[in-house]
Amino acid sequence: MTNCLLCQSSLRHTTSFDEMMSLAPAQARQLCEECAADFFRLDSVATCVKCGRRLKAEMSNPCYDCERWQQQISFDFQNRALYEYNSAMKDYMKRYKFLGDYRLRFIFAKEVKKAVTWQKRLLVPIPVNAGTMATRGFNQVTGLLKGCSLVEALKTSQTVKDKRQSEKGRADRLRLIQPFELVEPQIERISGKDVTIIDDVYTTGTTIRHAASLLYQAGATSVIGITLAR
Amino acid sequence: MINHISDLYGRQISSAELSAAILELPEVKRRPAIQLKPSLMCSRCGSRLKRSQANLPNGQYYCYVCIQMKRMDTLHDLAFVDEPNQFTKVSDALSWEGQLTPLQAECAEQVVRIFKKRQHHLLWAVTGAGKTEMLFKGIEWAVRYGKRICIASPRVDVCIELFPRIQAAFAKTSIVLLHGKSEQPYKYSQITICTTHQLLRFYHAFDVLIIDEVDVFPFSGNPMLHFGVNNAIKTAGSMLYLTATPDKHLLTQARKGRPSISYLPIRYHGHLLPEPTIIKIKGLSQGIDNNRLDKRVLKMIRQLMSQQQRFLLFVPHIKDLAAVATAIKDAGIIAKYDTVFAADPERLEKVSAMRHHELDFIITTTILERGVTFPGIDVLVLKADNDIFSAAALIQIAGRVGRSSDRPTGRVLFYAEARAANIRSCQRQIRKMNRKAAEI
Ligand SMILES: [Zn+2]
Ligand SMILES: [Zn+2]
Ligand SMILES: [Zn+2]
Predict the structure, then answer these.
(1) What's the pTM?
(2) Which of A69, A178, B121, B282 is the most buried (most CB within 10 A)?
(3) Residues of B with CB below 8 A from A131's CB?
């Protein structure tokens, strides 16, 4: 007997032929119907072409935040998100990342894999810093990328933590600080390639754009982002 | 983050939660949080783990069973410090001035003896026997000898209701309340009141461990919580189980002699338990599914409202709550009422509103079957023949009624399609207790 990974209620096995043939979300097999219904997929609604957020009626496309980004950065960048960052997703992240329940990666792993592999691109995950790795024991992004071949071309730069502390509360200055470094032996693999950066959540878009700019520096032809949530 | 050594007295906490300075202290001992051999097992909750589920990258493992209490993993040790019993011995700790009935007093003396002899004991007392008051003497004795005491319950509502009563009775003693929703920070205290889940963070701490409502979910049939209890108590500690409806497991153990067992069949005010009245209604369940209630139920609700009689209306499932509320509204009944269930984010507020007479009645799942007392209420149970209502649950529900000496009786109405086995068993057990009570 299997149980819902989020609420532990037992899952009835009702996988019908129709369900198998349809594009039913892969998470359906890890979650009970109630828990699965709490997540909101972004593939059937209008979203911002630049960041992937769900567009409300009054919003322009690209959204206001992305227009501001276009004035600030010199390269092209688009992000696609699979799910809205709603309260269910917030709770999921809390349990997966902060409590460290690594099993919860199974809920979205298949869907993320499908989303990142349908085009032939080089896959670069956002790294976690050494401190997080030592206590959490896993990178929440690579956890979602089981069975994908990854190029771990980025690492967090050593000095970032101290800088962040002293710059606290000054959002614009923060945007200038590059939190990542390129991993030397991987650089040559980037040159001339189409690259997809993968992250768990797109919040302000700062992190993923820092990563994108480094990858362009390393000679990537194009860089896009895919995140589980926005 | 733990910064003070006293926060570790008698506790077991992942080294991830300890500051570097604390970790270096010689009194802080460590053991592996996860045992790898002979099979993968969590040291805190005792769960055997599946490697395929418990694995982390780089050959590390974690426990996915007790993770809501912060993670146990092979990246960190489980740190613990011996319980030093750093309490001032106070001989007149009990500030309660109430009176016990002769029977209660006898029971209270027995509790003291149990603690003195470090026994494991089951006190089987009917609902409304006044078991909290019967603990006071025993706790007073434990405080006098500098013992560390814990009262744990599987139900958070029970803990929340217990805390102010224990605080009032032991005004000079340090007391801490711990549960998943509490904002009160942990503090080393002589008396701990907590949910049974919180016991997982204690190690050989308590000289006296009292478990209230021991037969209830999630404690009953949960090996993790039983493992936690056995770790939280000192090796030579005394354990007192309290319940009105012990489960088979505990009774089987009691038959073998540990825990020992005693019985209190009479309520503190000396009146008998109210016996349920069964009202058979055909198609009751189907009606509720269609947001309809039988006219006999509606008539009773109207009657109760006109008499200003407050009550609890029990239903088996969460989905029944809205259906019954709709049916009552559609019938044109004007009253102040609300619905509540275990995971209701406003649960504590709603229970408090009922307690403060801001509601006439509350439609509830079994979550309010015990632990909470609303003096002078009646109870109605819809679909009492449903499996969700065990015989024990029905006994507890019936036991909500007639709790005050002002109104020692009241209505207990079970609406059902059939007099099913659970109902019959409930009736049998209530009659048996009443017979025993009458013998005294
Ligand atoms: Zn679920
Ligand atoms: Zn946008
Ligand atoms: Zn565990």
Answers:
(1) 0.85
(2) B121
(3) none
